[in-house]
Structures are given as C-alpha cells and as structure tokens.
Fold this sequence. Notes:
The protein is α+β, with helices and mostly antiparallel strands. 45% of the residues lie in helices and 22% in strands. The protein contains four helices and nine strands; from the N terminus they run ααααβββββββββ. This is RIPR3 protein.
Amino acid sequence: RSCSFTGFSTVQSRKLAKSLSRSSVRSRMSLKPPKAYNSLQKGALIWDPKPLQVKKIFEALKKGLNEYLEAHQAELDYLSGRHKDTKRNSRLAFYYDLDKQIRSVERYIRKLEFHISKVEELYEAYCIQCRLRDGATNMKQAFSLSPATKASRESLLELYKNVQECTEDMCFIEGALEVHLGEFHVKMKGLVGFARLCPGDQYEVFVRLGRQKWRLKGKIETDDSQTWDEEEKIFIPNLHEKFEIKVTELRGLATILVGVVTCDSINFFTTKPQAIIVDITELGTIKLRLEVLW
C-alpha cells in the first residue's frame, strides 16, 4: 500500500520510526559475522547494498539449486524402481548396496531442500529490510521539506538511525547469503588465436574475483599444443564482484598487454559445466577458453 505524508503528524512519524527500529533483522535472526563471510572481512565491509544485483544472484542461485534437486530426485526415482525389482528377484548383497545408495541420495535431497529454504529465508529478510529502508528514506525526505521544529528534528534523527540500521542489516544478510553460493571450479582450456599464436610464444593469464586471484603461465609448443603451469582453480562466488581476466604476452623481460575483459558469473549457477570463450582482443583475434563447474 502506498503511504501519503499529507496530514501525517509528527507523533505518528516518531512512533513509526521506533517501530522500524524494533524490526531490525538482527533482533529476529542470528547473523554473526564469521570469517567465511566475504563481504564482512576486515577492510572489505560493503556499506552500499545492491538490491537489484542481489535479486539477480538469488534468482540464479535458486534456479541452480532446483536443478540439482530435480536431478537427484530423478536419480532417487530410478534407484527406487530398481530397488523394488531387486527385492523380488536378486542377490541379497546387491539389494543392500542399492538400499545404501538410496539412503545417501535421500540425505542429499534433504540437505538441498534445507539449503533452498535457508536461501529463501535470507532473501525474504533482505527484502523486508530493503522496504523498511526505502520507507524510512522517503519519510526522511518528506520531513526535510517541512518546517524545522524540535519534534521534526528529533524525528529526522530517529529516521536517519533507522536508515543506517536497515542498511547495516542488509549488508549482514548479503554476507550470510554469500556463504550459500557454493564454489566455482574454473578450468583452463587454453588460448585460441589461429595465426596469432606461434610456437614458442609465452603468455600469462591473470584471473581475479574480488580478492581472489589466479595467475598462471602457458607456452605454445611446436606441435601447437599448449602447456600451462596450473589447470584448475576454485573461486568462492561474490555478490558484488565480476570476474576480471587479464592476458599478457611474455617476451624476455618485457610484457605486452593483450587485453583485459570482465565476465559476469550470473550464468554459472547451473548443474552443467559452462564452456566460456572470452574475446581478449577487441577484434577477437585472441580468445580465452575456460570451463566453469558450480
């Protein structure tokens, strides 16, 4: 419902401001800032919530988790069907082995269902704090246009505190949500450059996601194959950061920048490995091939 500020008394506004203050998410949820929270690490605290970005990540995350749930539910249905047939006519040892597999899949499904419910709970709390912050901000703007009195100044101060508290709560929830984003396993698949890649050429690839870094070196062999000193790296997804990829060519002691690109991780929350081909140069003469498994 929309709320009109016309005729809204100072006493009513102060009551609403206090009610907003009492509805702090940390009074209803135990959101401790453990070390695992990327956004809550010392020196990396983000006091600028991004609701639209969080919504996109939440929707992608929930879709990916449901894909995993559907896949394991299909596996459970298949095993259950075999279990019934085996019970009628099969070896006892095979029957118990199948029963063990079924129990394992059932436990994993329960974990996934809990994971999904926790993500939904966090996002619901996030949306509530976002609406409260928007309401307090609108009220603050309305009071700033009204004649200055002692009561209005007190209301403005209370509303300012509410905005700050809601912002802080949103940041805590973003940190809690990051814990549930899983891991990205990034595999190096090599450079594609056709005539641009020659035997003996050496390249360095630098991948960054927030504070996480991956630096690897590779060489073009005489048979056009490529050797890299590392093949895989695990990254922890981040709500606010994109992948930044930088490629340089190594020539003796000199380095020549080939290109720098950014890559959004929104499409990586899926059960299937994602093949990525990134244009490193503007004309696409050199591309980087990666594979991401969530």
